[in-house]
TrEMBL record:
This is HTH luxR-type domain-containing protein. Transmembrane segments: none annotated. The keyword Ribonucleoprotein does not apply. GO terms for molecular function: DNA binding. GO terms for biological process: regulation of DNA-templated transcription. The lineage of its organism: Bacteria, Bacillati, Actinomycetota, Actinomycetes, Micrococcales. PANTHER family: DNA-BINDING TRANSCRIPTIONAL ACTIVATOR DEVR_DOSR (PTHR44688:SF16). Keywords: DNA-binding, Transcription, Transcription regulation. Residues 792-857 form the HTH luxR-type domain. The keyword Transcription regulation applies. Pfam families: GerE (PF00196). CDD domains: LuxR_C_like (cd06170). PROSITE patterns: HTH_LUXR_1, HTH_LUXR_2.
Length: 859
């Protein structure tokens, strides 16, 4: 199908009736294809149409000479033929129409000839021109001289049309999510939609699942660079820089856009269809168009030019919108990494952060205004909810807590108010006694005494210990009807999860009533994700969290976003997918979202887990920043996995090279947590101790617990570490293959490389070559990784796209200086990449890196 068949038919009809048509649209909008199809209709009708293609101003009249048919031998027009002679040639041919492709690139002299032909012969002119109305109706516009004339503006295609176009192009059914994402990135421009689909298909980001084409986590491909460069090529430096500035800043309000690039430039970009102005319920925003430009600029290498633009954006946002500035500065100064499911492009991150910041500012102010006007408990609950999930005003909250009269509240409202009051106290370092006092009511015949009893018990679980008899206390309360039973079941489920009996929690969490309020529903959902993690269903936990993170963003649900981001972080970290772990928390970090209203807050545990991952990735500076942020939180976190500071102390010790001491610190932390009943958190610390320093005796004792919390993944890892200690290459290969099957590419790669070294050193080249082939397959991303697959450039094994390309160049025999020239980076940067590659793969020698060349050739 051709997406603009209706325009083709209309244009042909107008032209045959003697009306000239100017076809205007952005690049890749289908102007050339429309003219080609109109020409076919002329041919089918037995009519003559001459196609003139603009080739620039360097060769005046050459476009006309090339378009006209050759004259008989001996009657050739001289190269310097005058415009009048060319007009005579047209008169001899008597075309029914003149079709001008790229009219904006046609030289002035050729336009003069076409104008004379039109006026003298009445020939219809169909001109396709790039949308550049900023030039005005000048020499290169049909509307200046043609009469009658109609202008056809090629608007964006609808989502439905893009969906049909992709199904026709790909030759099969297309998932709505795929067509929706491509429609968004292409702004409905058909050429870009096809280019994005083809590039993503070439990179393996689009694949067939049964009979349906589905999308992976990312659609970007370096093959798209040419398309976007072609879009921008014909604009001057000032225009291109303005587009880059807005692309990196994301959607901003008009005042901010004016401060960034100036009103005249905004109008220039708008007239050239490079930006789009749109309105929300709250404000008017401006963003680049097509939105895929954001991806293009975000994937450009870091440079002095980029840093200058980022500095300008940051300084401007610091004045226009202070809350959004840190997000821009944090994310746009970092060279792009391969994107997994959680990673939002630099285009999107500031927008999402801004959305949360603006929403928080407006909604919390509205809630406080309502409370001041009504002093109602319902409005007080709204105020408390907001201030427990973001930046807070302690004096304002204290006023609300002191001046809200609970006398007119329903029992359900009083229960929620008292719960949030207790969470406020605990989030600010208050004592258990103070929090419990806030929960208790002196109202006689209170309807929710069972819920209060369960919440009072939960405070002890969080701050003191999880008593072995928790079930006997909570199970009877969970049998209560209505809200009481719902809340008590949630607390009981947490008891099972934290004591590492998560499988018993899932049936309880499935009993969540459909009509429960949003806050309680979110609490249940976060607990369910944590239960998946506690059962060793790490992929399920990550998938569950991913869907709820996106829902939290769409619904601007701050508590839900904080809780599910934590589940995603610990699940992905346990799977060894460290880049995606960092990505999973970027929205929370950018928007300063907290989850202090959760029954068991996870903010500190999120920061600790990210810090551990950052240290394992060698990003110690980032780890320090995360730990500093964690230290600003007064909330406790010992009960949940990785929420105890002992794990970060041990991680720092390990990063400094003292692995035995780190392992001992992990084990001491695990023993302390287990003594308090926090078995799941203790198991996590024990596993970290074995990662830091493998102890066969500890591993043998811990193995049954490892299989509970990590399934075959953890068991395979322990087997691999034991095989490594025993220099058993066959055992290493078995463990690596199991890890690969569990999608733990990082650890699989390390064990494979150790096995290769042992085989080679023993002279077993056959097995060494066999395993090298498996490694190349692993690096090339040949595994079917489901929705968690990254790009085929080894993102699955922890290598960034840049590192994967360097592996290929090393395999081809290039030296560091040659590689630096290819990327336009310093030799020192190349050396840093090589160190990271060695750290991630476990190889030492350059020839071993070369052995992983994707082309399968060992150099």
């Amino acid at each position: 199908m051709f997406a603009r068949d209706s325009e083709v038919t209309r244009i042909f009809r107008l032209a045959t009736e003697g009306t000239s048509v100017e076809i205007v649209g952005p690049r890749w909008s289908g102007r050339t294809e429309i003219l080609r199809r109109v020409r076919q209709l002329y041919d089918q009708a037995g009519l003559t149409a001459i196609v003139v293609r603009g080739v620039g101003d360097r060769l005046p009249l050459e476009a006309i000479r090339a378009a006209l048919p050759l004259q008989p031998q001996g009657n050739t027009v001289a190269p310097a033929a005058s415009p009048s002679a060319l007009v005579a040639r047209f008169a001899a041919v008597k075309p029914s129409a003149i079709l001008i492709d790229d009219g904006d690139q046609l030289d002035d002299a050729s336009w003069v000839v076409i104008e004379q032909v039109h006026k003298s012969l009445g020939t219809a002119v169909l001109g396709g021109t790039l949308q550049r109305p900023s030039k005005g109706p000048g020499d290169h516009a049909l509307i200046r001289f043609a009469h009658p004339v109609v202008r056809v503006s090629l608007s964006e295609l609808s989502l439905e049309t893009v969906h049909d176009l992709l199904e026709d192009h790909l030759g099969g059914a297309v998932a709505p999510s795929l067509s929706g994402r491509i429609h968004t990135k292409s702004a409905g421009i058909p050429g870009f939609a096809i280019a994005i689909a083809d590039a993503a298909l070439g990179e393996g980001h689009i694949r067939k699942h049964g009979a349906v084409w589905i999308d992976g986590p990312d659609l970007w491909s370096s093959d798209l660079n040419g398309a976007f460069e072609a879009l921008l090529l014909s604009y001057d430096v000032e225009v291109r820089e303005a587009v880059e500035t807005l692309a990196l800043a994301g959607a901003v309000d008009l005042l901010t856009a004016r401060a960034l690039i100036g009103q005249p430039m905004i109008e220039t970009l708008e007239q050239n269809a490079l930006v789009r102005v749109f309105s929300t319920q709250r404000q008017t925003l401006i963003a680049v168009s097509p939105p895929g430009l954001g991806d293009y600029f975000s994937h450009r290498p870091l440079s002095a030019h980029r840093l200058r633009i980022v500095e300008k954006i940051t300084e401007t946002l610091a004045v226009q919108s202070p809350a959004a500035a840190p997000s821009v500065e944090l994310h746009l100064n970092i060279a792009p990494e391969p994107r997994g499911r959680f990673l939002r492009a630099p285009l999107e991150l500031p927008l999402v952060a801004r959305m949360f910041t603006e929403s928080y500012k407006i909604e919390s102010a509205a809630a406080h205004h309502e409370w001041e006007a009504t002093r109602s408990v319902a409005s007080a609950i709204r105020v408390l909810n907001y201030h427990l999930t973001g930046a807070h005003d302690a004096a304002l909250v204290d006023q609300v807590l002191c001046d809200t009269d609970l006398g007119q509240a329903t029992d359900r409202e009083e229960l929620t108010f008292r719960y949030l009051h207790s969470r406020w106290i605990l989030s600010h370092g208050g004592s258990a006694d103070a929090a419990k006092a806030a929960l208790r009511t002196d109202r006689e015949l209170f309807a929710h005494t069972a819920a209060l009893d369960a919440l009072l018990y939960a405070i002890g679980m969080e701050l003191d210990e999880l008593s072995p008899d928790y079930e006997s206390t909570l199970a009877p309360l969970a049998e209560a009807p209505g809200t009481d039973g719902d809340i008590a079941r949630l607390v009981l489920a947490y008891g099972h999860i934290l004591s590492s009996r998560a499988a018993e929690a899932l049936p309880l969490l499935e009993q969540r009533p459909a009509d429960t309020d949003r806050m309680l529903a979110a609490q249940y959902d976060v607990a369910k994700g944590l239960a998946f993690y506690g059962c060793g269903r790490l992929a399920d936990a990550a998938e569950w969290a991913a869907s709820h993170v996106e829902k939290g963003i769409a619904d601007i649900e701050r508590m839900s976003l904080a809780g599910h981001s934590y589940v995603a972080v610990i699940a992905l970290a346990s799977l060894g997918r460290f880049d995606e772990t960092m990505d999973a928390a970027r929205v929370v970090l950018s928007a300063s979202v907290t989850g202090a209203s959760l029954l068991f807050p996870t903010d500190r545990a999120t920061m600790y887990t990210l810090a551990i991952v950052a240290m394992r990735m060698g990003r110690n500076t980032a780890a320090e920043g995360l730990l500093e942020r964690a230290d600003t939180l007064d909330q406790r976190g010992d009960a949940v996995p990785f929420g105890n500071k002992g794990v970060t102390t041990a991680a720092a010790t390990s990063a400094n090279g003292d692995r035995p001491k780190a392992a001992a610190t992990y084990l001491a932390t695990a023993d302390a947590l287990a003594a308090r009943g926090y078995r799941l958190a203790a198991d996590g610390a024990t596993m970290l101790s074995l990662i830091a320093e493998f102890d066969p005796a500890v591993a043998e004792t811990f193995r049954p617990r490892a299989e509970v919390i990590g399934g075959r993944l953890y068991a395979a890892y322990l087997d691999g570490r034991l095989a490594s200690m025993q220099a058993d290459p066959d055992g290493l290969v078995r463990a690596a293959r199991m890890l690969r099957a569990e999608h733990a590419g990082d650890e699989a790669l390390r064990f494979f490389t150790q096995a290769i070294t042992i085989y080679r050193d023993s002279g077993d080249e056959a097995h060494s070559a066999e395993i090298r082939a498996e490694v190349r397959s692993l690096l090339a991303g040949d595994d079917s990784m489901g929705s968690w697959s990254g790009s085929r450039s080894a993102a699955n094994v922890g290598l960034t796209s840049r590192e994967a390309e360097i592996v290929q160049y090393v395999a081809s025999g290039l030296g560091n200086s040659d590689i630096a020239d290819r990327f336009g980076i310093s030799i020192r940067t190349v050396e840093t990449h090589l160190r990271n590659i060695r750290k991630k793969t476990g190889v030492v020698q350059r020839e071993d890196i070369a052995g992983f060349g994707f082309d399968g050739t060992r150099r």
